[in-house]
Amino acid sequence: MRDADYIYAVACIRAKEKTLLNDADVQTMVGMKSEKEVLSYLTEKGWGDGSVDADMETVLSEEEEKQMKLLKTLGVDEKIIETLFIQEIYHNLKAAIKEVCTGLDDSQAFYDHDKYGKNVLMQIIREKDFEKLPEDMAKVAEKALDLMLTTRDGQRLDIMIDRACLDAIEKEAVSTKDKFLSDYAETKVVISDIKIAVRAADTKRPLKMIEEALAPNRKFDVKKLAAAAATSREAVYEFLSRAGFGQAVDALKDSFSAFEKWCDDHVMSTLMNQKTNIQSSGPIVAFFLAKQNEIRTARIIMTAKANGFSDDVISERVRKMYG
Asked: Could you tell me the pTM of the whole model?
């Protein structure tokens, strides 16, 4: 997109930003009595298609679809859109390989995706038509299918494809000329590496397996992180504190759900810097990611209400808003 195109698109986004939920909206939702009351509140704010009978998943899915249409309407570069959905595409690849190899049908394991949804990926994997995939994905898809067919080792499959996904994100972070997109992609890799290290420490995975799972990033030495994870969770804490991630450590010491919240809030802090930008993809991408954050938060609140969690417990889990 040209600068003039960005200026027009950002002007549209500025108008859309006024519809975003803010922290006060979230607290209002937390204080409501039921999932249905929260859903009604969101419907009044324009979520879904206005139907009073729609359930939670229908409303949230419709809201996600609206945001995809908006990205395309504004003419956002396809490369940027692909970067935003790298994790979903690789997740679908993993799900397709597992289904082809096990014969177990699980449609809910797939994300909806125009280009690489379930049906497309299932056909590619069945026919071993890997050239229809992006080059980097094609390489790992062939190796992953061979691995699953010969070993049926789902854990190794997860490690292989998840690592390839992180490498693809990092590759985009390094190669893109869009600084915001680069920073966002780098943040995603760093957060994923931390999650992998903590889980590896808890499950006492061997060093070699941890090294295979962690993706290099520009924030810290993943070999040292792997060594720490092979030792203990406390060693991981010490490494992260030295690397400047003390807040992540504090959240992890509280609970993993608190850490998940820290991750989302950390990304949100990155997005906030785009509110004064007018000549790049930053504000557009930031708005889209803010909507994704809203949808996750709405799902957390409604699911918690449906399961009888207290307001205090829910408040500990809700995310910081962009609006």
From this structure: 0.81
